[in-house]
Write a structure and sequence with these properties.
This protein has helices at residues 19-40, 47-54, 58-64, 68-91, 97-114, 116-123, 130-139, 142-145, 147-156, 163-186, 195-208. It is mainly alpha-helical. α5 crosses α6 (116-123) and α5 runs parallel beside α10. The chain is elongated and about 55 Å long.
Length: 209
């Protein structure tokens, strides 16, 4: 029998998954995790429980995600991606820099008000360490998306601000918007002013202060 006549040898083990199949499985696991995290809280869910929900073994989960926080951080990245994609669409509808800043700032607050379950998952998940948060912020593209606030604020200020002053004002803007969203979401018993008015006051203070 010549080499060309030898029967083909079967490769053992599971077939290699395509990139699309891997992405689909990661998305399926993330969707199951989102359901459980919103239902019972991040801290209460084990990888074994998540595997049961996803219809696979815990060992299989680790082929797609390093750990439970890896799944949560993927969900965070998806939420921020949707948020800033939406804000980007808002920004291009406003030609006036000040109007653009107001619209983007209000859009940021409104997104969390309209997706409160996402707000709780991103900002209020129990069992998440500061090291986890630091790793997410420094190791993902999410932080770069916040440059939209920086760009809009810079344009609204007319460029008449130092680099250090702009950095401080951008950080203050982020703090104010997150503070507005946090209070409106978590302190429901207080008769807050409308989000539009709170955001307008915050922006006007930054531009004139």
């Amino acid at each position: 029998m010549t080499p060309s006549e030898k029967p083909e040898r079967r490769t053992r083990g599971r077939p290699v998954h395509s990139t699309e199949q891997i992405a689909d499985m990661r998305a399926h696991i993330a969707a199951c995790a989102l359901k459980l995290f919103q239902q019972d809280g991040y801290a209460a869910i084990s990888m074994r429980r998540l595997a049961q929900e996803a219809g696979c073994t815990a060992m299989t989960l680790y082929k797609y995600y390093d750990n439970k926080f890896d799944i949560l951080s993927a969900l965070w990245a998806e939420v921020f991606g949707r948020l800033f994609d939406e804000l980007g669409r808002v920004a291009i509808t406003k030609s006036d820099p000040e109007a653009r800043l107001h619209a983007v700032a209000l859009g940021y607050v409104s997104y969390w008000l309209e997706h409160r379950e996402h707000y709780f998952m991103v900002f209020m998940s129990g069992g998440v360490s500061q090291a986890d948060v630091t790793g997410f912020v420094s190791g993902s593209e999410t932080l770069a998306r916040f440059d939209l606030l920086h760009t809009c604020l810079h344009a609204a200020l007319g460029g008449d601000v130092s680099a250090e002053g702009l950095r401080l004002k951008t950080e203050l803007l982020s703090c104010m918007l997150n503070g507005i969203a946090h209070n409106l979401i978590t302190i429901g018993g207080y008769p807050w002013s409308a989000p539009e008015e709170l955001v307008r006051q915050a922006i006007d203070g930054l531009l004139t202060g």
